Task: inverse folding
């Protein structure tokens, strides 16, 4: 187990605003170690270490609404909950971990108040889950869940998350790293029309 | 990831001919030129040395380069958005700390400046309240050194459009055009605007012992593992070491240039890889940090003889900090573009390079078409039009539809030199070695924002003319950060108005030379690295002649 280190923790604090422009990947190295561990956990089918069952069910249900499974696979199939579990263990600031855990507690309290017979977010109908998340979508809890879910969707699969390249296939990104022209539709047409290949 | 240096090892207590501070775009050239000319050279580089063959394509895992570049934890900066406001901790100057410097992860757009960039004040007249000035050299004087960059560093491209004059063809043909380039070219032609293949410091075919580009798509922000990108790490550093006279000292952070009683540099003090303070004796010093680190080092080198910092009798060290404006208009297209493949840019237009007083403001620029997001940053939602959902079924649908169907037409604009925009030493904030942090002020001239807005409108016209199904843009805002670090030790003939002379020698210190982005008098219209490298070649040429004539 690697100790929590400040430069890694910073990733989750700032990833929402930093991943842009020239300094695209300011904090990306921070997540490397996390991802390697998530990968191991996934490959070994290891039980979750940081999250208890209730937390795991509830958080996975939220992740599945953020990036749903429909005609194509989503967050559930990509193994996002392992990614989150390892994030808590290894790189997340204590305050963010508390935010996640308290978020589940709050979720259950308010869902329990609203739907006493159900009691759990993950047991709500799809429509009610969406309706509830809309009501909390500007909270820091939800934003953290969104960052964690989408990061887990689109990381390199060798590190965990993005299982079977689910996220990349969805985008149409192919990690074959040597290409030859034509690259896309318009340059292919251009060549056919007799444009200069250069 | 780290690799070993292969050059000689010089004792710190024996005088070498030159210490070069920095190993990036300028420092690599300086090291190669001076060692090739027969001088002993020690290069101090604060970052580690990475092995290019280990660079990969994984959006975050292989991005150590960016981690080294951008980590503010051990080298913080403070920031002011006006000369009157209080500084707060925030990193606003971005550069790579590694052997090869920022060239290791640059996009490799290698535009020459045009003749107008050197004498624009004479052409347009003065601009009150600014540092708008002519250079002490002309385009014609620098042209042979641009050509040297083309051929010795390795630039691919083709003339055309309204490109600046050249004395020799490009050594390599342009890289193959991408869909973004085709859409951009057709749009420019339909608008009657000039367009040409992008000049890129990337090999389009095997060149000088390096392979041609494999079109992996990971240039901007990544190291090139086949060394098709013409970085200092791939080109100049190995040649410098092959002379047997150049020692690249990685993980060595310069903290002070010491002078003797006569005001001449005698040694460069630095912290080695163990954090132990060392000092390298030398006959002369060439600082090739960048527009941030170079003035910082001079300001840290104050003494009784130089109370305002070394070479700063003019009070110009650190002033006139410039970068370039950048604006973005996006288009969504019906058919797949697959912009994740190959180099970022394949076509550019310099139709509106010159400033036109009829527009009512100062400013010129260039434009290109690109797409510069990896799957992770796109997947986090940054590539979608404003107002798009941020999660859920519709968000998922849009990410799938848009990733391969979007281009980003960029406008790159001038930045007016202002004395208030500067790099100073923060009175309180220190780095891990106790060196004062940079305190950076960025408060653009109002015309800079007008130029950005004007160029945004032109880039939108291009997207419209290209047949996009959907168009959106980002509203330009005042600059709050810089990746191009320019102007802070400007070149000039008047010692009261500039820091270095026309040969990059400090006006105040005969054996101190500064050659990097800090030398630039004007910002150009984006893509300054080609000019930084040409200046480095030219300065190295003159320094060699001075040294051989005993004039240092």
Result:
């Amino acid at each position: 187990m690697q100790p929590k280190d400040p430069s890694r923790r910073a990733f989750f604090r700032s990833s929402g605003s930093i991943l842009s422009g020239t300094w695209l990947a300011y904090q990306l190295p921070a997540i490397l170690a996390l991802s390697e561990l998530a990968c191991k956990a996934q490959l070994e089918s290891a039980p979750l270490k940081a999250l208890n069952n209730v937390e795991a069910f509830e958080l996975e249900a939220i992740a599945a609404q953020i990036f749903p499974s429909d005609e194509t696979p989503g967050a559930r199939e990509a193994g996002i909950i392992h990614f989150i579990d390892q994030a808590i263990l290894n790189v997340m600031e204590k305050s963010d971990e508390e935010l996640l855990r308290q978020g589940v507690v709050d979720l259950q309290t308010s869902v329990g108040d609203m739907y006493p017979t159900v009691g759990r977010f993950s047991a709500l109908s799809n429509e009610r889950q969406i309706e509830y998340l809309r009501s909390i979508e500007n909270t820091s809890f939800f934003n953290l869940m969104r960052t964690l879910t989408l990061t887990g969707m689109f990381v390199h699969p060798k590190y965990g998350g993005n299982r079977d390249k689910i996220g990349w296939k969805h985008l149409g990104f192919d990690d074959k790293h040597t290409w030859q022209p034509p690259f896309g539709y318009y340059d292919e047409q251009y060549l056919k029309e007799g444009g200069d290949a250069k | 990831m780290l690799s070993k240096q292969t050059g000689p090892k010089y004792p710190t207590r024996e005088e070498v001919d030159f210490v070069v501070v920095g190993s990036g775009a300028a420092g690599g050239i300086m090291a190669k030129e001076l060692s090739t000319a027969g001088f002993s050279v020690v290069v101090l580089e604060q970052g580690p040395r990475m092995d290019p063959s280990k660079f990969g394509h994984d959006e975050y895992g292989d991005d150590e380069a960016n981690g080294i570049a951008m980590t503010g934890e051990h080298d913080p900066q403070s920031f002011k958005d006006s000369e009157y406001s209080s500084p707060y901790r925030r990193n606003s100057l971005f550069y790579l700390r590694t052997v090869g410097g920022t060239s290791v992860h640059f996009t490799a757009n290698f535009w020459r400046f045009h003749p107008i960039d050197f004498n624009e004040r004479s052409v347009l007249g003065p601009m009150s309240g600014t540092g708008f000035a002519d250079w002490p050299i002309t385009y014609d004087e620098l042209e042979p050194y641009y050509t040297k960059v083309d051929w010795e560093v390795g630039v691919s491209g083709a003339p055309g459009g309204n490109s600046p004059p050249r004395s020799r063809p490009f050594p390599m043909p342009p890289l193959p055009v991408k869909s973004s380039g085709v859409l951009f070219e057709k749009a420019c032609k339909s608008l009657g605007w000039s367009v040409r293949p992008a000049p890129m410091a990337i090999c389009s075919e095997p060149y000088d012992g390096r392979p041609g580009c494999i079109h992996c798509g990971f240039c901007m922000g990544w190291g090139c593992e086949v060394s098709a990108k013409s970085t200092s790490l791939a080109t100049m550093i190995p040649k410098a070491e092959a002379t047997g006279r150049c020692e690249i000292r990685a993980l060595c952070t310069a903290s002070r240039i010491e002078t003797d009683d006569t005001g001449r540099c005698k040694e460069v003090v630095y912290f080695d890889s163990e954090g132990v303070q060392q000092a390298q004796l030398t006959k002369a010093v060439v600082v090739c940090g960048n527009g941030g680190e170079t003035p910082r080092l001079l300001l840290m080198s104050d003494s009784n003889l130089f109370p305002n910092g070394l070479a700063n009798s003019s009070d110009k060290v650190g002033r006139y900090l410039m970068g370039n404006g950048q604006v973005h208009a996006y288009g969504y297209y019906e058919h797949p573009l697959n912009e994740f493949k190959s180099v970022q840019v394949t076509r550019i237009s310099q139709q509106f390079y010159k400033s036109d007083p009829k527009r009512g403001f100062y400013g010129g620029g260039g434009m290109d078409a690109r797409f510069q997001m990896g799957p992770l940053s796109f997947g986090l939602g940054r590539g979608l039009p404003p107002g798009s959902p941020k999660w859920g079924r519709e968000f998922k649908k849009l990410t799938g539809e848009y990733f391969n169907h979007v281009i980003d037409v960029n406008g790159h604009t001038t930045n007016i030199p202002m004395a208030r925009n500067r790099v100073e030493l923060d009175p309180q904030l220190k780095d891990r070695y106790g060196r004062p942090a940079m305190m950076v002020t960025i408060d653009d001239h109002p015309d800079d924002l007008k130029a950005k807005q004007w160029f945004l409108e032109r880039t939108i016209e291009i997207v419209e003319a290209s047949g996009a199904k959907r168009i959106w843009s980002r509203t330009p805002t005042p600059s709050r950060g810089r990746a191009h670090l320019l102007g802070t030790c400007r070149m000039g003939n008047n010692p009261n108005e500039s820091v270095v002379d026309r040969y990059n020698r400090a006006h105040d210190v005969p054996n101190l030379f500064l050659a990097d982005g800090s030398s630039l008098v004007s910002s150009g219209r984006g893509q300054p690295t080609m000019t930084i490298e040409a200046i480095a070649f030219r300065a190295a040429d003159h320094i060699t002649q001075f040294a051989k004539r005993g004039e240092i």
User: Anything to note?
Assistant: Residues 110 and 119 of chain A are 9 Å apart (CA to CA).
